[in-house]
Every structure is written in C-alpha cells, then in structure tokens.
Amino acid sequence: MKRYVYINDDEASQDLYCDNRLSNRKYTLLNFLPKNLWEQFSRFMNQYFLLIACLQLWSLITPVNPASTWGPLIFIFAVSASKEAWDDYNRYLSDKKANEKEVWIVKQGIKKHIQAQDICVGNIVWLRENDEVPCDLVLIGTSDPQGVCYVETAALDGETDLKTRVIPAACMGMDFELLHKIKGVIECPGPDKDIRRFDANLRLFPPFIDNDVCPLTIKNTILQSCYLRNTEWACGVAVYTGNETKLGMSRGIPEPKLTAVDAMIDKLTGAIFVFQIVVVLVLGVAGNVWKDTEARKQWYVLYPNEGPWYELLVIPLRFELLCSIMIPISIKVSLDLVKSLYAKFIDWDNEMIDPETGTPSHATNTAISEDLGQVEYILTDKTGTLTENKMIFRRCCISGHFYGNENGDALKDVGLLNAVASGSPDVIRFLTVMAVCNTVIPIQSKTGAILYKAQSQDEEALVHAAAKLHMVFVNKNANIVEIRFNASVLHYEVLEILEFTSDRKRMSVVVRDCQSGKIILLSKGADEAVLPYAHAGNLLIGAISCSIWKFLRPLYFIIPKFTSGQQTRSFIEAVEQYSQLGLRTLCLAWRELREDEYAEWSLMFKEASSTLVDREWRIAEVCQRLEHDLEVLGVTAIEDRLQDGVPETIETLRKAGINFWMLTGDKQNTAVQIALSCNFISPEPKGQLLSIDGKTVDEVCRSLERVLLTMRITTSEPKDVAFVVDGWALEIALKHYRKAFTELAILSRTAICCRVTPSQKAQLVELLKSCDYRTLAIGDGGNDVRMIQQADIGVGISGREGLQAARAADYSIGKFRFLKRLILVHGRYSYNRTAFLSQYSFYKSLLICFIQIFFSFISGVSGTSLFNSLSLMAYNVFYTSIPVLVSVLDKDLSEQTVMQHPQILFYCQAGRLLNPSTFAGWFGRSLFHAIVVFVISIHVYAYEKSEMEEVSMVALSGCIWLQAFVVALETK
Amino acid sequence: MEVEGGSRSAGAGEDRTIPIQSGQPMAFFQFTQQNLPACKPVLTPAWVITACLLMGFIFIPIGLVTLRASHSVIEIVDQYDTECVPEVHKYMKAPIYIYYQLDNYYQNHRRNQIPNVVGFCLCICFDSKLTPRYLPESNHGLPIVPCGLIAWSFFNDTFKFIRERTELMVNRKNIAWKSDRDHKFGKQVYPFNFQNGTFTGGGSLDPSIPLSDQEDLIVWMRTAALPSFRKLYGRIEEDLDEGDLLEVHVMNNYNTYSFGGKKKLVLSTLSWLGGKNDFPGLAYVFIGCSSIIISIVFMLLHVKNPRAYGETAYLSWNRKSISG
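YS: structure for the whole thing
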C-alpha cells in the first residue's frame, strides 16, 4: 500500500491518516476491568480457581467458607491487576508528556506553536538543536548550507554514535522563506517497522524548481525519538505519525519465554489435577454408597428420603472442593516474587560490573533465571563477544611489501615510515583509501583534537592508523573531504557512496580528486569480495570468476590458486598469513574512472536508488557494474584482542558440560585461530578439527558424511573433535541434509561456523532447539539480535557495537567472562531454589489435603472439613508462604565450590532436582507426614478429648511445625 | 559446623574490592550480594549419630513418664442397655468423672454442620446478645432456639448412681467449657419452640433456664471429631473403695439401635496428664528406641566403611574417571 503525502496541504491528508497522538496504553479507563479480567482468566490455573470459587458459593456442597478461596483469589487478582494498572498509568503519563510537548509547525505558510499530538501527516515540523523528533519526518531543510544534519538514534537502535542525515537533492539550497511555502508530494510505502529502509520519492510542485522525481532513502529522514545534534535547526515533513511511525510499528511485546522448569511445573500441576479427579471420584462413589447404606439409618443426620435430581453429584463436588487446595493458589504468586528477586540479584551483583565502564549486569527478562542453570549449548558470536572489538591496525601489505611483520606494529615499521616520507605513490594511494573510503564523521573538539565517530570499528581503526601515518582526515564538509597529508591539504569531493552490506561485503566511494579533477573509485572489502574483481593484468580470474560470482555472490569462495601474477599471489599470501594470526583482513583497491563511464553509471545508480521495490538488490547490482577491474593496492590487518578471562570461562563452562558453538561472520582461518587461542578447540594431538566444505550439493554431502563417520568413531575416544563449516556449505547442509547435520550437531561438542549470516545464526539456534536442547545465545552486535531472540536465553554484551543486542537480550552483561558467574552462580542457585519452592508448595498443600481426606474416612465420607476456613487460609497464606521465602537466599554450596567444581552443574542440566521422580518423593513425603500427623492427633486426642476444634488445631499446628522443619531441613 | 561469614571475598582470588556505596546499610549490601552470614551445618556421620542417640535418650524417659501417668488412671467402662452394674476394682479417688460414650455415632457428619435443611434452622443462633442472630421460619412459623441438627439430636439418657442403697451425689455443674458458658451461649437466650414439631429428635430442654446454664447441651454441642467419643456427664465427689458395687439407674431414652451404635458409661479418675491414654507414651518410647537403633546401625556402617569428609575423589565425575 502506498501513501501519498502532500506537503503543507491540510485538506488533502487531514483525515486519511491518524494524528500524532502516541498511545502505548493497553487499557482505557472503561475497558480496564473487563479486559484485564479476561486476560487473567485466559490462564488455565485462574480458570480452575474461579470454578472452585464459584462452586463454593453453593452452600449445600461447600465444606469451608467461600472466603477461603475468594479471599486469596481476589488478592492475587488485585495484585496483578494493580501492577498492570500501575504500568499502564505510567505509560499513559509518559505518552501524555510526549503528546503535549510543544513543537513549531508550519500551517498555511504561518509558523505556529502546537502540541505534538496535533501534528498531521504533511505538516512541516521545525526542530532546534537537541530537540526530540516528534514523528517520522522527511528532511527538507537544515541550518547547514550543505543540507546535512546530525542525529542521535540511541532510543531507536541503541547506537550512540551520531549519524548524518542529508536533505534530498531537490530541496537543496532552499532558503528559510521558501521552505514555508513549499508544496509537493511524497510517495512512500505504508507504515512499516524497518528502521533501515525508507524507499520513497519526492516531487515538488511548481513553482519549485525541477519537476523531477527525487529519490528518498533512510538518509533523508529523521525518525521519531531521535535527537537532533550539532545542528542549529532542521525542518521536515511529517510522513508517519502517532503509532504508525517506525518506532511505533516496531514496538511490540515479545513473546514470553517459558522455562523448562515452568513447563515441568505445568506438567506436574496437570498430574496433580488428574490425581485429584481420581480421589474425588473414588471418595464421591464411596460417599454415596455410605450415604445410602449407613447414613439413612442414622436418624440424627436426617437425610430426606427423596433428594433433588443432583443428589448424586453433591458428595463428589464437595470432595472436589475439599481437594481443591491440592493445587496451591499461591504458587504462581510466590514464584513470580522469587523470580523477580533472582533478577534483582543479578542486577545487584557487584562482581558482574564491568570495571572499565561501570555498567552493571541487567536482567531484562525476570522470568527465566532457572533456565540459566540448565543451559546445554552456548552459541557465541566472535567479534565483540569473545574479543574486545577494540580494533587496532597492526600490519599491512602494500604492493608486495609486508610491513609490521617484525615488530607486530606496522605503524612503527621503519620501512613504512620511510615509504610514507619518500612519497611512494603506492603507499600514498593506499593511505588515501584508508582515509577517504569510509563513513566516518570527524568532529573537531575545542582543543583541536579530532574525534572520529564511526559505525564500524574497522573504519575507525583505519582512519586512526592513516592519521598516524600523516594522512589525517581533518574535516568532512558535506561532500568535500578534507585530508591533510604532511603539510599539504587535499580535497576530495565524494560523488557517491556505495554502501557496505553484509551481502556485498565491501564498500566503495566515488570521489573527484579536486586537485587533478580525476574521478576515482575507492574500494575496500573482504578479500573474496575484492580480489576476484581485480583487473585482468592484476589477476587472471577476471571475467570468468565474475560471472560465477553472480551466482555465488554472498558466499565464501576459495580463491583459485591457479592465478598468475606475482603481486596477486603476494596478496593472497598476505591474507592467509594474517588470518592465521587471527587478524582481520581487508583488501583495499582503487580504479580511475573515465568521465563518461561515471556519468553513464551515475544515471543507472540514480534510477536504482529511486526504485521502490527491491531497492537494495537493484543497487547492489548496479554497484557491481562499477566495481570491476580494480587495482588492488594492498591488504590491511587489524587486530581484535581477546577479552580478559575468555579461555578460562570457556574451559570452566565446558567442564560444566556445556557445549560451545562459535558462529561468526569472519573468515575460516581467523575464526579457527581465535578458537585455538581461547581454548575453544584443542590443538592437533589432543583435538581434531574436521571441516565441512564444498561448493556443490554433492561435495557438501560427501564431506558431511565423512565428518559424521569420523565423529561416530571418535565419540568413544577422549578426544576433542570439532567441526568447522562455512556459510555456503551450511546453507546446503541445512537445506538438503538437515537430518545428517542434526545428527552431527548432537554428536559434536564444539563447532565453528564461519561466514554465516544473521538468519543462519538464527537457523542454527532453531536446529538445536528442535533437538530439545536448552540454548543460550550470546552476542553483541545487531547481527546477533535474531539469534538472541530465537534462543531460549539471549545474552547481550553491552559492548562497543551499540546496545542493540543488549536490548533485545534477556540478560545483558559487560564482559564475556561474567557468563561463568551468570550460569554457575545465578543460574544454578535460581534453579535449585525454584525447584525447592515449587515442590514445597505442592508438598504443603498436599499435606493438609491428605489430612482432610483421611478425616473424611472417620466422618462418614461426607466431606466434612476438619479445619475451619480461617485456619486453612492462614495456613496457605501466612504460615507456609512466608517462611519459605528464606529459600530465596538459600545456597546449597558456596560460590567458590561451584566455581572450582563446575561439574556440579550436571545436576541442574539434567533436571535432577525437579522431575517426576523427585516430585514423587515430595508426594510420598507429604503422604507420610500426613499419616503421622493424623494418626498421632486422633490417637492422642481420643475419647473425651476428641473435640473437633481441638483435633483440628492440633493437626494444623502439627502441619505447620512439620513444614517449617522441612523448610529448615531443605534450605542449607 | 562451618560458619560462612560475610567476609567471603577473602578467599576468592579474582575478587576486586568494589567500594560499598555509602548510605547503603551493610546488611542490605550483604543481602544484595547474597552474602548474608549463614550457618551451614554439615551432616557428618558423627553429627547424625550423636543427634540420633541424644533424641533417643530424651524421648524414652518422656515416654516412660507419660505411660506411668496413664497407668495411674483408673477407668471403668461398662456398656449398658437398660441398666448396668459397674464394679469398682480399685480404690478411686475423688473427683471421679462420669462420661457417656457413644460408638459408631457420626457427630462429625457434614449434615450436622450445614446450615440449611428444610424445616429446621441449623445455624448456631445463640448469641451472647439479647436476640438470636438468625431466626428463620420454623414449621410453625416461629423460630427454634436452639437450632441445628446437633441440638435437635440432643442426648437425653440420664443416670442415677446408688452405692449400697444410698444415692451418690453427682455434681453436674461446671462440666462445660467456661468460654462456651460465658461467651458462646447467651445468658438471656431461652429455649423456645424446641422439639415442638412433628419430628422429635433427642431430648428436650427446660424453657425457663437460659442456654448458658444448660450445660448438658453445651457439652453436646461441642462436636466430636471421631465416630466414637465420650462426653462428660458429671462428677462424683466421693472416693470409691475397691469392691464397691455401684447400681446405675439408667433412663434409656436415646435411640442408638436403629444404626447399631453402642452406649457406654465410663467412670474415670484423672492424672496430671489427663485421662487414660497409652498412645503418647508408647509413641515416645517407640521413637526413642528406633532412633537409638538407627544410630547404632549408622555407627556400625561408619566403622565398617569410613569415608573421609570433603574427599573430592568421591565426587561422581571423579569416580567415573577413576573407574573408566
């Protein structure tokens, strides 16, 4: 569905679209009660309790006062309803604040001050520096003469760097007055939640200059909730308002995750329910039989001879009510309470505060702490998760010369410094690419130092390195890039940016050298995305591989060894050598363009950029047409250091029986090197690394079967066998040999998957989940978000790649090494405590229920309650629910013991503390205790003391003491 | 006993000293770090054996004392139909309590507790206040006081005790709970319209005496928990000698024959622990003995295969690697 936004034209779009009233509220004043009740009653447990409570209103059958169920039920409902109401009220307040914020808009050519909620689609909104953007706007003017403005998008995607936004070409150079009267139409897609895409067109109406369609991208928009920074003012046309903004659309409640423990508790509840039904049926039949044979003879109970039609049902229903306490009403409340405490403990933990940034750990999802103790597979990202994601330029290879090999730091390599000083053209060109080919924004601080704001850590490292080598990227003024080399200042005009996508794996810029006027294409990218496009003299594969590349575009491809050319060989060598050292490599290349070639291509690019459908793919195709015959300048190697404590953490967790998979977008060699250095896999004699590769279905199949065979043989040997697979082979394996690959996944404790895309990461999580394994995914970047959301537990590292992953995750931690503590300490304790608490809840209700059942045998199976309503309520609510809360602080073993013997976690993983057999133990315990209490109290209080209230009080206090003793015994 | 204190971090090597935010009390800080001081008893064999032995040595004497008290009580139980002649076989010291006992009588049946059967008000409506709380329509359109099935089935046998042709005085005051007399049953509430209809259940009441003084009724109204129960009838405040023959004149009004219930008359003295009941004493002795036996068994097992405390080789994963 397309949307046509008429700029500054109230009549055209007034009623078509919603106003800018934000509403995150779930309820209104009127529908709160029905809606909230409906939501609460959609849970099975609540339905059950409601049924019981309603049955209790029938005075003929109720053994106890209805208040004993209604009281707790209403209490529980009131608690969760008031929590919802409070949350909703807060949402209402924050909405109100946002809605009533005053903004400047232009209406009928006049500037007006109105409330944010009254903005309509098509209005022109004016913003000043540090203003929050009230709705999604298409930028049409800024204070900057080049039409650039900066926004901070932290609220949207969690990234704290500044992003540049530009006004569309058609609006360029319009002055203040003109902007008030501007008229035009924006053709854009219907509201969606993709914050990286906005494929629209703008056409201004006469008299406004050209009548052409001007393409709009996300670069021309400023989205709701962003902040305008470093720009005096900006104005834009509202295109999406209210809840139809990108932010509004992406808002949504994620599906709640259910832990294994929860599932088990539900199962056990079901079992108890069945047991209860059986008891009710047996006692009901027995009661009816007794009534007909015995009770009729007993004149003093005065049974009428003819009963109503439902007479047979009365006794079973009475027993149903008597046994209804078997399912403890308080279990949900107390579990929710302790779970939120577990989460708080994680937040509070001083040993999980990142010492560098002071960020504490945070549990976003408070309901799944137990699952942490039952993790079986950890899927981890590499960059930023295992490593620090602090990129440092280490080595390079420029036209066959290796720099930085001796001392490990190219910046101090005398050879390179000399080459720079002497002005060797190759080196200069290399440095130019490093400094220019990027999307970094330099910000000059008052002291004169230059700060670089970059989205990519690699780019930042390259720019910094270039600056150290006297090629300083000084300023970016709209399209003009200012470079200072030694003493001279060079200017480049950026004509186009061919952006980086994870499919293309390279980015390029087209610049005009302002000195010579030449147009140059500068490229940088992964080796397999650059080397095959090197020009024929440079590299022979040329056209052939290019055509293959079209089909195998996103995939890793081994660079043919048969290419000739000394230089290329040295580049390939360099790439291999660097990646074996665990360094990240980038190839830099360039090409001079002819004026006409550029002009022709530029038209195509413009056309592709203004398509509404499949824009990304079309652009990639057009870019392909320019990025060929490249002259490869050299290879850079960037180091990404391992985080502290990574090898120890992996070793400890592996001892705890957790399997590790590494999923990375990096190259195979780099991944393997990192894996070796952090204990992920063992070196040759102890470990064995099998590789699954191949480019065709058959090859992958063969290699998969070979690996599987080896795996099967070696499972009995004490050898660490791991397999490594790349994205291409993985794609084939998942598509065609899912079954074999699943078997392999089960067999191997370690795997490295390299060159995988975000969706493949999510697929692997899905695969392991489908084998009934508990998975934990840990990552730090936007590319891990899908995997984190897919996994049973998502852990985000609040690292340098923004907060995207940490926001999507259930837990966010500062460093990888905290994972050990998170799992072994918090996860394990939570599991133990929940296992105890839930079974104990059943135990104490069964205890009292068994006594009631036994009593019914000596009261003529008539369903008399031994206990009065008040004591039953007090027992459930006060005596048993409160003391047990101490178990929240229960530690069965000290933290050090667990850290030293991580094998202890096996117990949690296998669910040894909460499963049908442990539950049967608790069931037996409650049966035994009930027998003891009952027998003792009726015998001690036989004959003259057998007054009912006395007996019931004695039995009740017996139960209370016993359960208190059980709590004391079980908490260590 | 190992005591884990708050200063746990001393042992951990990787702990960094993170300054405690001031203004946060120490206890709260310990709570947030899950580091509250705790006592961790370890159930070592020696500990368990001592505890069991100790329990045995405490429980057996208690049991024996209890048993002794129970045995010092003299109790005469006699089933009766129309008359009974209980014989005193041992000297009984005053006061001697007279109980009537009913067997196979379900006073705890649910219908005795539900408030609503046609024609009868079954709620408890003897308020300490002037007027009964709840006065439903009765079969004559009038309220019934006291109401309820239990009151309706009021026990009405009477006993007269004669020793050697002289009548023994039976004190029938103060047989009900004081709290019931003072608070539960109204002083101003008189029986009304009771046992007046077409159904007549048990005994009737003197409408001129307030409910709080009708102690028989108050005793009866305390529901028994078991199907066989005793209720206090009165006290004989003279000593009875060994060999005394008591003649009891029974007014057998109460119908238990329709459901095969038995009626018994019980004469009993009291000890400091109450009436005759061997069960608590036996239970104490039994538990004491069994815990001693268990401790001996544990001791033997421990002497036979001793196991060092805290030996990591016994951990399951270590054992596996030893054997495999």
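YS: worth flagging: DSSP finds 32 helices and 33 strands in chain A.
IM: good catch. Also The mean pLDDT of chain A is 81.
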